[in-house]
Write a structure and sequence with these properties.
mainly beta
């Protein structure tokens, strides 16, 4: 199980947080013989959409343009 619950994206403003999610995974490993192992993993058993990486930053189009706050979120690749 992977659970992330509203971690802070900005060190100065505690109200800027990432969206939380919980993802369930299953993994098994079996030693076949010495030096040989069989591994099986099933990720995201509930097939939930979630964002793996979320960022918050200040941005501007040109050096003299006003600063604009921006969020980016990268979806998990299936």
């Amino acid at each position: 199980m992977r659970a992330i619950n509203h971690y802070r994206l900005d060190g100065d403003d505690p109200s800027i947080v990432a969206s939380g999610h919980t993802v369930f995974d299953l993994g098994m490993a079996k030693a076949i013989r010495r030096g040989i192992e069989f591994n099986l993993s099933l990720d995201n058993l509930t097939n939930r959409d979630y964002y793996e990486t979320q960022n918050y930053f200040d941005s501007r189009v040109t050096p003299l343009a006003p600063i604009v706050a921006a969020y980016t979120a990268l979806p998990a690749i299936r």
